């Protein structure tokens, strides 16, 4: 049986806005096993980003339990949470969040600068390996402005991998990309998932969710659906079906 990596129980998050309380999450519960590829869907304002921020230890719930690998996040200090964020979780955002005047390789090396156990040689080696995994070795000296959107997102994926995270959290990671590029990125995620990395992926797009194994749907801060996808599509197979690009 696979190991439970995430456990959420009766989780709430409220924001006090003057006299009003916004109940962004209203007591949700689920578990995620190691190796799952989960998409989180729901309309605007349903609580997706709030949930992802809590899962990424960027925010604390108002009440309820959040455990990673059996450890309760609310028992940890700020420093311990920062270590978990840096060593266990890879983050990928819609807007790539790369440093502008810095090469792809140096962007990927960045998370390792905070890891005093890693020497500069090892840092470089690991960054090159991560860049290779996303198929960008021939572009590693380019800065973000010299790369396409899809290539920039690959750099961001490589950066998220360099610390060997146990899970990747992605927030609308294909939101700025055309269909072909989005499918290319999804095929990289599927490949990483095959290698055992747990992926939690927030998206608005139902076709993107078909590439994951399980979909959780939020509405007004509640889970209204949580089910395994009966037919998981292969992103590389779907990519091959798209009309050829014209140049
Ligand atoms: N920092 C905050 N302060 C006050 N209210 C907030 C805050 N963050 C989120 N909210 C509110 O919580 C609710 C859920 O927001 P959230 O950003 O999680 O939704 P979402 O599903 O990610 O939406 P979108 O798809 O538009 O990004 C919304 O009503 C939002 O206005």
How would you characterize this protein structure?
The radius of gyration is 18 Å and the shape is globular. The strands form 2 sheets. It has a 6-stranded mixed sheet, sandwiched between helices. A 4-stranded antiparallel sheet has the order 2-1-4-5, covered by helices on one side. The chain has helices spanning 48-55, 78-88, 104-113, 120-133, 149-161, 179-194, 206-209, 235-241; strands at 4-17, 20-33, 37-41, 63-68, 71-72, 89-93, 167-171, 198-202, 214-219, 222-228. The chain has 8 helices and 10 strands. Helix 4 packs across helix 5 and helix 5 (149-161) runs parallel beside helix 6 (179-194). The protein is of the alpha/beta class. It has a single domain, classed as Rossmann fold, CATH 3.40.50.300. The structure holds adenosine-5'-triphosphate. The site of adenosine-5'-triphosphate has 12 residues, from strand 1, strand 2 and helix 1. Adenosine-5'-triphosphate binds next to strand 1, strand 2 and helix 1. Residues 6-245 form the ABC transporter domain. Keywords: ATP-binding, Nucleotide-binding, Transport. GO terms for molecular function: ATP binding; ATP hydrolysis activity; transmembrane transporter activity. This is Putative ABC transport system ATP-binding protein.
Describe this protein with a few key phrases.
247 residues, alpha/beta, Rossmann fold, 6-stranded mixed sheet, 8 helices, 10 strands, binds adenosine-5'-triphosphate
